[in-house]
Amino acid sequence: MPHIHLMPQYSPEWWTARRGFPSASAFDRILTPTGKLSASASGYIQELIADRCSLSPNFFTERPMSRDMANGLNMEPEARRWYAMERPEARIQEVGGVVSDCGRFWCSPDALVDEDGVLELKCPKLSTQVGYLMEGTLPAEYRPQVHGHLVVTGRKWCEFCSYAPGLAGFLVRVEPDDYTAKLRIALDDFYTAYHAAIRRVAPHLLEQPT
Fold this sequence. Notes:
Blueprint: E1 3-5, H1 12-18, H2 41-53, H3 67-86, E2 92-93, E3 97-99, E4 106-107, E5 111-113, E6 117-122, H4 126-135, H5 143-153, E7 157-162, E8 170-174, H6 178-201
Parallel strand pairs: 6-7
Antiparallel strand pairs: 1-3, 2-5, 3-4, 5-6, 7-8
């Protein structure tokens, strides 16, 4: 069974728990939205190893945040309320993160929904929300993350919800498909390469990664 963490996201405990895990928010660095292997996988492996052997926990709480990211975080409670009104019968559980049942991957969904669902919330700029509403489908840039939630949690669906005051909310349900299967294969290959890199670097570390 996947392991669920309940600490607040972006807390020091959250950064510590997820350090070294390939995370769904970065799965686009493993498989692109079009289903091709990403050219940035090697760089991502280097960053993950650096996370694992860092001797300074504060490193994980001081990453820069853009104005749009800050606005999105501030708007998230309102977006949650909108989603709850759209799904009044749903049982919505906020979580810090989920580790896959194989113990190799991490995701930080904005909630687990009922027994089978996952929620991913976004609070974009108004112009971006206009585009989402015009297209009416899962935005391509979030395809790896949303399908990553499905892979890591093992759940049957993920709802992508974007919310921006002044416009209608956008909600789409995503279920496993061919892209999910490609992502699973890519993640397995990535993890093999990741741990091969750890073995090569291990003799040079002051503290051995787990």
